[in-house]
Write a structure and sequence with these properties.
The protein has 205 residues and is an alpha+beta fold. It has one domain: 3-Layer(aba) Sandwich (Aminopeptidase). The chain is built from seven helices and seven strands; from the N terminus they run βααβββαβαβααβα. Strands 1-2-3-4-5-7-6 form a seven-stranded mixed beta sheet, with helices on both faces. Helix 3 packs across helix 4.
Length: 205
């Protein structure tokens, strides 16, 4: 395989539909909530050079895009996906690392954050220097939280006044510490236990 990771160009717009379908299918298979994207939205991210794509000789292999909030005070990476044919190769970590470095270059004064239910994503974030934080340390921009409306867990988020959900908030502050080495080592057992506790509390009937 000859997989390259690059910032998106006009020639990549044709992958927008496949990217959306791959993201949605992955969420269905995992049984997790997801904020749905449209091909038009993905293309806008490509046009603004706020997206990266992984290609294997022209075949779609992976994708991720950047969103900025509060006039660039916060940025988040969203839509991280690897095509099923390229999973278990460490590609997700390579894409995440690429978009992480790219976002620090494009938005040098921004705090980088994310919310996720995926332990694999938490592990990657932790390796990059993110730390788990309460939602109060993330952006207060209502348009960010409005993006969760299509997630199956949105009612939980609303009931908690955007302060808590099944997702875990993670934050990287470039003014706090260098990227390497991370000072918050990932403990999969602790975070998995936290995830199970949240599910028991929020999904109980």
């Amino acid at each position: 395989m000859n997989i390259s990771i690059i910032t998106t160009q006009e020639e990549h717009y044709k992958y927008s539909q496949e990217i959306c379908e791959t993201i949605e299918l992955s969420a269905l298979l995992r049984g997790t909530g997801i904020a749905k994207r449209t091909p038009e939205y993905i293309q806008k991210k490509m046009e603004s050079k706020d997206a990266v794509i992984a290609l294997d000789n022209g075949k779609f292999a992976g994708f991720c895009y950047i969103e900025s909030w509060q006039h660039g005070k916060f940025v988040a990476h969203s839509g991280l996906i690897v095509h099923p044919d390229y999973r278990n190769l460490g590609l997700a970590k390579k894409i995440k690392s690429f978009v992480f470095d790219y976002s620090l270059e494009k938005y040098p004064n921004a705090k980088v954050f994310g919310i996720t239910t995926g332990l694999a994503v938490m592990k990657i974030n932790s390796d990059l220097g993110y730390k788990p934080v309460p939602f109060s340390e993330l952006t207060s921009d209502p348009s960010f939280w409005a993006g969760c409306k299509t997630c199956t867990n949105f009612e939980i988020l609303q009931s908690k006044e955007n302060k808590m959900c099944l997702c875990t908030g993670m934050l990287y502050d470039p003014t706090e510490k260098p990227k390497d080495p991370p000072k918050h080592p990932f403990n999969v057992r602790v975070l998995n236990r936290l995830k199970l506790i949240k599910e028991a509390l929020f999904l109980k009937k």
